Amino acid sequence: MDRDNNMLSKIQDKLVVSCQALPEEPLHSPFIMGRMAYAAFLGGAGGIRANSVEDIHEIKKHVDLPIIGIIKRVYDDCDVFITPTLKEIDELCAEGVDMIALDATDRIRPDGSTISELFPMIREKYKNQLFMADCSTYEEAMKAAELGFDCVGTTLSGYTEATKGKSLPDFELVEKLVKNSSVPVISEGGISTPEELKRMYELGVNAAVVGSAITRPMDITKRFMKAVRKQEG
Ligand SMILES: CC(=O)N[C@H](C=O)[C@@H](O)[C@H](O)[C@H](O)COP(=O)(O)O
């Protein structure tokens, strides 16, 4: 894979659809994620974000779109779960994905390292692989760009101690990053309407990722029900 062939230009101004279902979710199945990705492709998606080698392998059979791959893995006593260690990076590289996303927050990782310690090792081992930094704050994203990540994402805003309770999507963070980041910005997390997506592009993101609002029917159902209950209430 060539870092210069630039998957980032392929997804520029496109919608990346996140097709994920964890073991505890009703749609957990590589078969279903493959069909979900195909539906996203037919709907006009320009890229897919997916979790696990099994799902990615299946998705590749159905769509020829750039893939942002992650492995969500929970380690004891650790909050970092999106591609937390070199082991998950190795697994994704062995499968082959256009870009790998990993937690780039300032939290301690399962092996006790920080992203500033781990990422240089990853970059050294996989010189031509594209990497996306899943961040929760402006400072983390700035640090990630400095470390050599190829792009920064707002994926974890609202999900860390420092950002808990933030209203999503985090337009403020996106705006600040687009103005100041030296690498492309990917908006991800909490985009739930086409209007919000449009606003992200107007702010100047390279691309935006939408997940739950498109691919998690249980959550979508809950949103509808909440609105109805409110009215009844
Ligand atoms: C925090 C976390 O675990 N985020 C995950 C990252 O891959 C996914 O569960 C999200 O669905 C994805 O980021 C897209 O966001 P949203 O589903 O809000 O459109």
UniProtKB/TrEMBL annotation:
Q: Which Gene3D superfamilies match?
A: Aldolase class I
- Name the record gives this protein: Putative N-acetylmannosamine-6-phosphate 2-epimerase
Catalysis performed (reactions): an N-acyl-D-glucosamine 6-phosphate = an N-acyl-D-mannosamine 6-phosphate
EC numbers for this chain: 5.1.3.9
One GO biological-process annotation of the entry reads: N-acetylneuraminate catabolic process
Origin organism is Paenibacillus pini JCM 16418
The UniProt entry, under Pfam families, shows: NanE (PF04131)
The root-end lineage is: Bacteria, Bacillati, Bacillota, Bacilli, Bacillales
Keyword Transmembrane helix among UniProt keywords: no
Alphabetical list of SUPFAM superfamilies matching this protein: Ribulose-phoshate binding barrel
Its GO CC terms are:
cytosol
Annotated keywords = Carbohydrate metabolism, Isomerase
Going by the record, the broad EC class of this enzyme is: isomerase
What does this gene product do? Converts N-acetylmannosamine-6-phosphate (ManNAc-6-P) to N-acetylglucosamine-6-phosphate (GlcNAc-6-P).
Gene Ontology MF terms in the entry: N-acylglucosamine-6-phosphate 2-epimerase activity
InterPro entries, A to Z:
Aldolase_TIM, NanE, RibuloseP-bd_barrel
What the entry lists under PANTHER family is as follows:
N-ACETYLMANNOSAMINE-6-PHOSPHATE 2-EPIMERASE-RELATED
Q: Which CDD domains match?
A: NanE (cd04729)
The similarity comment for this entry is: Belongs to the NanE family.
